[in-house]
Write a structure and sequence with these properties.
The protein is an alpha+beta fold. The chain has three helices and five strands, in the order H-H-E-H-E-E-E-E. It has a five-stranded mixed sheet. The mean pLDDT is 83.
Length: 161
């Protein structure tokens, strides 16, 4: 009788361990998917945050619109505030897609003749991107005008997709 109780107990312990192992085995994959989803949401939130957003600067309130003038000025001061610790990300980059420009890093002196704004240098993270409008004021022949184009904001986070 004791042998039978011991065998049944051992059987249920093995079944419980098997169920536990199958539940835990997908935990890392679920964590990576959750981290990727959070990065996608963060890319949209960053584009609409006051530090990046166009707001009503270009006539109408636009969603997913990044003000290039604000971002370039933010880039000049971001290192003093600890780069991406506020957002908890590994890197942040905005790449202009249309009108297509070269891959020169944007500064206040060469905008709009550039194509990349790197706010936080990527340190071995996985990138998630979202499409946004990139708008800025340009001066031609003494006239100031707004120019908007298509860009991609890339949020780098630590983890595998």
């Amino acid at each position: 009788m004791t042998f039978m109780i011991l065998a049944v107990t051992l059987f249920f312990v093995l079944v419980g361990m098997f169920i536990l192992m199958t539940q835990v085995s997908g935990l890392k994959q679920k964590a990576a998917i959750l981290q990727s989803d959070n990065a996608k949401l963060l890319a949209s939130k960053i584009a609409d945050s006051p530090e990046f957003s166009c707001g009503d600067s270009y006539g109408t309130g636009m969603s997913s619109c990044i003000d290039a003038d604000k971002v370039i000025n933010l880039k000049n001061y971001l290192s003093a505030y600890g780069y991406g610790r506020f957002w908890g990300i590994q890197g942040l980059q905005i790449i202009r897609i249309y009108p297509e420009e070269n891959n020169i890093e944007c500064t206040s002196s060469n905008f709009p003749n550039c194509g990349v704004i790197t706010l936080i240098p990527n340190t071995n993270g996985t990138g998630i991107s979202n499409f946004v409008s990139l708008c800025g004021y340009n001066i031609t022949n003494g006239q100031s005008y707004a120019q908007c184009g298509l860009a991609k904001i890339i949020v780098y986070y630590q983890g595998a997709p």
